[in-house]
Amino acid sequence: MRDKVTTARRWVIKIGSALLTADGRGLDRESMTVWVRQMVALRNSGVDVVLVSSGSIAAGMTRLGWKERPTSIHQLQAAAAVGQMDLVHAWEGSFEEHGFTTAQVLLTHDDLSDRKRYLNARSTLRSLLDLGVIPVINENDTVVTDEIRFGDNDTLGALVTNLVEADLLVILTDKDGLYTADPGRDPNAELIADAMADDPRLDAMAGGSAGALGRGGMQTKLRAARLAARSGASTVIVGGRIEQVINRLKAGEQVGTLLLPEKGMLAARKQWLAGHLQTRGRLLIDDGAVRALRSCSSLLPVGVKAVEGNFRRGEMVVCAALDGTEIARGLVNYGSQEASKILGQPSESIASILGYVDERELVHRDNMVLV
Ligand SMILES: Nc1ncnc2c1ncn2[C@@H]1O[C@H](COP(=O)(O)OP(=O)(O)O)[C@@H](O)[C@H]1O
Ligand SMILES: N[C@@H](CCC(=O)OP(=O)(O)O)C(=O)O
């Protein structure tokens, strides 16, 4: 099941206040550099990374010397305005050490509910990703009012996952994952490894309240997983202090709780795939591959006879039989130049031909619609 994590090409990583601010002692810059190192490795392996970072209010409180979280919205907004400076400064400095550029993106509910602004935000984020920039997103706390704020960044993380069509939402928090009960209160609570996001039994388990610094607790993380599932994305809720947590997730290790979208949701993604993307090229496939695709298998390079067009990894291509009949469309795992080199070859040879392996499939069945 962890292949949903290892094969995901676009990750939204949300880091909560409880983790980022070292339990209220200001920003935990040391941990931030550790996560940055891993996010850089992820990016270098070809995965797009979008960071949703909380912590502005908590960082601002420390800067202003406040011990207690204020209750007045204006004081919270003032703290957020102060702390956001610290926050982006710390992320920027840390990514810069690895030669990566960051961008601050502050969003409000209105930005995502108004179609024009939604599309605008989407284009900007896509452009940033195309430029190889790491977007660092938070809620625009200074302008939102209580009634319209997301409040917790779990929800924001999920909406950003939908917005950028990410395959995976990773919620880093202060507990190792979702437990059968709040582990702070129940010593017998057990970690859940995998579940369907829509499993109703999870509601009672996530019922406990948030920690002192976070806003949502597990309830909002579960809701976020369900929101992310709407666009076919999986969610991992995992402890941000687990050593090498991002690297281990990428390697397929079973850390944290994986919440999967239901099958119907995947169908929705496929519907979207079918209707909304321009195709950039064509793969001509042999009869064996036609049969494999029609029985819902992935397309392997071995079944491809010719590559037409100029496309990049992640773009939509047509898979057609040798007589030109269109069989399927899907998102391709290798650009046209690489695809031409590995066509007709067994997947085991990809590494020796290209010098690296992204995926053994040319088009994975999850990213393919039969025509
Ligand atoms: N079933 C559960 N499993 C794990 N943690 C839970 C559960 N129910 C409630 N919690 C609480 O949720 C907290 C994490 O949420 P929160 O404080 O909002 O963190 P963050 O700032 O990372 O969003 C945990 O510290 C824990 O006290
Ligand atoms: N946007 C605000 C609040 C977000 C917040 O605390 O969220 P979370 O840590 O995810 O529960 C901030 O940056 O402090």
From TrEMBL:
The keyword Metal-binding does not apply. It is found in: Cytoplasm. It catalyses: L-glutamate + ATP = L-glutamyl 5-phosphate + ADP. InterPro entries: AceGlu_kinase-like_sf, Asp/Glu/Uridylate_kinase, G5K_ProB, Glu/AcGlu_kinase, Glu_5kinase, Glu_5kinase/COase_Synthase, Glutamate_5-kinase_CS, PUA. Keywords: Amino-acid biosynthesis, ATP-binding, Cytoplasm, Kinase, Nucleotide-binding, Proline biosynthesis, Transferase. Coiled coil: none annotated. Pfam families: AA_kinase, PUA. It comes from the Bacteria. ATP binds at residues 14, 173-174. Pathway: Amino-acid biosynthesis; L-proline biosynthesis; L-glutamate 5-semialdehyde from L-glutamate: step 1/2. Substrate binds at residues 54, 141, 153. Its EC number is 2.7.2.11. Its main location: cytoplasm. Residues 281-363 form the PUA domain. Catalyzes the transfer of a phosphate group to glutamate to form L-glutamate 5-phosphate. PANTHER family: GLUTAMATE 5-KINASE (PTHR43654), ISOPENTENYL PHOSPHATE KINASE (PTHR43654:SF1). Belongs to the glutamate 5-kinase family. This is Glutamate 5-kinase. The lineage of its organism: Bacteria, Pseudomonadati, Pseudomonadota, Gammaproteobacteria, Pseudomonadales. The gene is proB.
